[in-house]
């Protein structure tokens, strides 16, 4: 653990999570969020009182199995209906900016 | 002929179905009456984000023709309904209450929308919600807040405030919401109507815009329990396109409504009578317990100590899942993009900065933090382990009880603006409903009294797949009381 859980978040920590989640927050937002997120994290402290030694985590409350469908061609959604929602498209594809180089 | 005023729009769906099948009213007349009511009342209530008047009238004409051909089948044939605007509707804008999805038109229908259409329901429009279903007051909608029909200075609850207020204000007969931590039951309680969250997996989430995938479940709002049972029968069933859809045969929930609960054992969990519960809510609850005893049920106090941890578990797991689910809004595939910036990274940063509201940003940040290196074990994994213990605590309790009975919300509808600057106070609105989602259980809220001239909700919780049981208990209680007949004066 990097730090005691009850500590207040720092502005740099909020900036770091904002960068991870691609949220271009303003400085004012960073400061508001810092206070609010810290008060939310305080609510989570009570969990540390619960003994969970050896307890399996629950991801889903019902049994979820991977089900494979038959390996046969099926109709899919119309390309046109999907592309008309994209901000930019070309030649039947969604067009995006380069992210390398 | 029945007058097409608020009297006609205020009856239950099954009463409207009786009028349709006896030929006293047509679906077109019913739909016109609802559209007129919507036009009159929307400036005060704002239940709808989008009203699809022409489509509704087309669907109503088709329903009348089907009936004339002897093909009208099912409880919702020809009945005007609303669906929450996080349910995908082919060719009709679906916003999830967010600027992020402005301009987005789904190329397909959600499973429940398909079920509504094939059952002949007349979809009047899309109901308002807190952005991406994150909130308890419907004040976090990018398209303006919904107000409570009982007092328009107050909130309708949330996040499904539009679908709840719409049923309460006679703007539709039945509606669909989604419930991740109470988003159907809490607004049902605050608006004085019936709202049900089914067992996780009973209703397919295909086409529901995802918030917390292991918690989200779609369910009905209605004016009585019979309509909730009828609607659940229409929307439940196995769907291969949702990998968590339970592979169970279609069920007729209406047959669960026997009216008899004598000999049933009901647990009253003491932890749900939380600090800060209003005295009027507590008094109404105690009176409801007497009513249930009068019906021959055996009531016994029970303790579920881990209830106190449910809020923390929920506000780690739901935002963690949300931070992953909302990563898809990057400005490239759909919706409202900011493109006048230099790089792909700037498109993402600025699209998300401008497209998401404050509550959504808060939850994305909390979720990403709980999942991040160094904190994963302390927050996310810990919450999932406590989730296991909460499930086990419920399972052990249901070995001794048929259902649990609790208040739905610790307070009546609160004033608009009161909790907007204090996220933790807003989160506490759902303290009685959240444990149910953590364990994937079915639960229903029914009108259970009045306090300060506002409705109070009564919640029944059942074991997994005990949907019929909670409907049966709720129905027997409702039939023994008059609370569900009270209407807002609007």
Order of helices and strands of chain A: HHHEE
Please count the helical segments of chain A. Answer: 3
Strand count, sense and barrel status of the largest sheet of chain A are: 2 strands, antiparallel
| Secondary-structure arrangement, i.e. CATH architecture of chain B | Alpha-Beta Complex
CATH architecture of the domain at 1-50 in chain A: Orthogonal Bundle
Global morphology of chain A = flat
- State mean pLDDT of chain B (0 to 100 scale): 96
Dominant shape of chain B? globular
- The beta-strand count of chain B equals 11
The structure class of chain A reads mainly alpha
User: Any idea of the CATH class of the domain at 1-50 in chain A?
Assistant: Mainly Alpha
Largest beta sheet: strand ordering of chain A: 1-2
Kindly state the percentage of residues in helix of chain B.
25-40%
In short:
Chain A is mainly alpha-helical.
Describe the fold and architecture:
The complex is a heterodimer of chains A (101) and B (490). The relative contact order of chain A is 0.08. In chain A, strand 1 and strand 2 (93-94) form a beta hairpin. Chain A is built from three helices and two strands; from the N terminus they run αααββ. By secondary structure, chain A is mostly helical. The radius of gyration of chain A is 23 Å and the shape is flat. Chain A has a domain at 1-50: Histone, subunit A (Orthogonal Bundle). Chain B is an alpha/beta fold and 490 residues long. Chain B has a single domain, classed as Alpha-Beta Complex (Amidase signature (AS) enzymes). Chain B has helices spanning 6-9, 13-21, 27-45, 53-68, 111-118, 161-168, 185-191, 225-235, 279-294, 307-325, 344-355, 358-371, 377-397, 423-427, 434-439, 467-479, and strands at residues 48-51, 80-84, 122-127, 174-179, 194-197, 217-222, 265-269, 298-302, 403-407, 443-451, 454-461. Chain B has an eleven-stranded mixed sheet, sandwiched between helices. In chain B, a hairpin with a 2-residue loop joins strand 10 (443-451) and strand 11 (454-461). In chain B, helix 3 runs antiparallel to helix 4, helix 8 (225-235) packs antiparallel against helix 16 and helix 10 packs across helix 13 (377-397). Chain B is globular, with a radius of gyration of 21 Å. Mean pLDDT of chain B is 96; it is low at 1-5. Classes of the chains: A mainly alpha (101), B alpha/beta (490). Chains A and B meet through helix 1 and helix 2 of A and helix 10, helix 11, helix 12, helix 13 and helix 14 of B.
